[in-house]
Design brief:
The protein is α/β, with parallel strands linked by helices. The chain has a single domain (about 1-320), classed as Rossmann fold, CATH 3.40.50. Helices cover about 50% and strands about 15% of the residues. The strands form two sheets. Strands 4-5-3-6-7-8 form a six-stranded mixed β-sheet, with helices on both faces. A hairpin with a 5-residue loop joins strand 1 (about 55-65) and strand 2 (about 70-75). About 40% of the residues are buried. The structure holds 2-acetamido-2-deoxy-beta-D-glucopyranose (4 copies). One 2-acetamido-2-deoxy-beta-D-glucopyranose binds near residues 157, 160 and 163. It comes from Solanum verrucosum. One of its GO terms (molecular function) is acetyltransferase activity. One of its GO terms (biological process) is xylan biosynthetic process. Its main location: membrane.
Length: about 325
């Protein structure tokens, strides 16, 4: 496919690197869209509909000789989805896309699984095996600089909402912002705090701190929902109570509590889907789709789910940078 020619990706790398944190770029983007002609506004509609189709994936299973199953995934082949031309990025494509950028993934165990999948794509599975041990040191940060592509990736163990808010304040203080920032916390909070209304309060202050970080906060106030695609929220997975490993988990992490936490997420208006700044990587929909075969402990899902989340994120970055239309 010509589509993924090198030239496109070199421009894209610049895009990921600059957008959206600097006012000059932001105002360039907004004036670009407000002075758009009819044809480019239809592009924007298209773009929005492709964003909304990103999670239309299906899972499939292959029986392994040892009686376990390996899941794989692909985008469904409905006409609308095919029109968006989503692509599973190869190692090279993903490397071009993230060349020279600073990626931060912060949150609880779900965020760590996202890092595993992203690094598996960028480094290959065998290199990944070597670093997995360090990455999985419990409750620790992990930092890696991928030489070949000059990419810095920080995983930050931030299991509570307040940890995420602190992190954002830190970026603001240092005036140093990642190019791609994926955050998500909920599971740990549900187990250790187990209070949805408190979670909601912290989500709102998280949202306020994200909005302060962005140079386009007035756009939110006007309700025109400026899109900052380089900010992602990593949703909580589907919890399968009967498979959870401890009594405490089974008691505290049931469907009712999950729903209460999720309701707070929408109420906080943190997500673009409710007019906020973060694009949801909908791990719940993906894990629910993949089903009980994809998890052994009812809360952490195997590769296919996280791999899909990574490719959805990368395709989100592609759409946003207008490389696809
Ligand atoms: C079955 O084999 C696959 C790969 O060969 C391995 O990843 C998986 O852990 C094995 N499952 C069990 C239950 O031993
Ligand atoms: C990353 O970008 C630099 C220049 O910006 C280029 O020299 C290098 O070859 C790129 N690396 C990859 C793997 O694309
Ligand atoms: C995260 O927040 C909790 C509660 O506010 C705090 O006790 C903990 O030290 C923080 N962890 C990190 C890594 O900052
Ligand atoms: C949840 O937290 C709120 C605010 O701190 C408190 O008023 C409420 O009693 C808590 N709910 C439960 C079930 O502990």
């Amino acid at each position: 496919m010509l589509f993924f020619s090198c030239a496109l990706f070199i421009t894209l790398a610049v895009g990921v690197h600059l957008v959206p944190y600097f006012p000059s770029v932001t105002s360039f983007l907004s004036s670009g869209s407000s002075s758009s002609s009819d044809s480019s506004s239809s592009v924007i509609v298209n773009r929005d509909s492709c964003f909304s189709l990103l999670h239309q994936v299906a899972f499939d299973f292959q029986e392994l000789s040892n009686n376990s199953k390996r899941g794989s995934w692909k985008w469904i082949e409905s006409e609308n989805v095919v029109d968006c031309d989503f692509q599973k990025l190869t190692k090279n494509d993903a490397s071009d896309l993230l060349n020279g950028s600073w990626v931060v993934v912060a949150g609880d165990s779900q965020a760590r699984l996202m890092v595993v999948s992203l690094l598996e794509l960028l480094l290959g599975e065998s290199k990944m095996e070597i670093i997995k041990k360090d990455l999985f040191l419990r409750h620790c940060d992990y930092n890696i600089f991928v030489d070949e592509i000059g990419m810095k990736l920080d995983f930050i163990w931030a299991p509570y909402m307040s940890n995420l808010t602190d992190l954002i304040m830190g970026f603001k203080e240092k005036k140093s912002y990642p190019d791609v920032f994926v955050m998500g916390a909920g599971l740990w909070d549900m187990l250790h705090v187990n209070n949805a209304s408190e979670y909601g309060v912290s989500l709102k202050s998280l949202k306020d701190s994200v909005v302060l970080l962005l140079p386009v906060s007035s756009a939110f106030a006007n309700g025109d929902g400026f899109r900052s695609p380089n900010l992602f929220w990593l949703g909580m997975p589907k919890l399968i109570s009967s498979m959870l490993k401890t009594d405490e988990k089974r008691e505290k992490m049931d469907d009712v509590m999950w729903q209460a936490y999720n309701d707070e997420l929408y109420r906080s208006k943190l997500l673009q889907q409710s007019g906020g700044p973060l694009f949801l990587l909908d791990v719940h929909s993906l894990s629910n789709n993949c089903g009980a075969d994809c998890t052994s402990d009812g809360m952490h899902y195997q590769g296919a789910v996280n791999e899909a989340a990574v490719h959805i994120m990368l395709n989100g970055l592609l759409i946003e940078s207008n490389q696809k239309l």
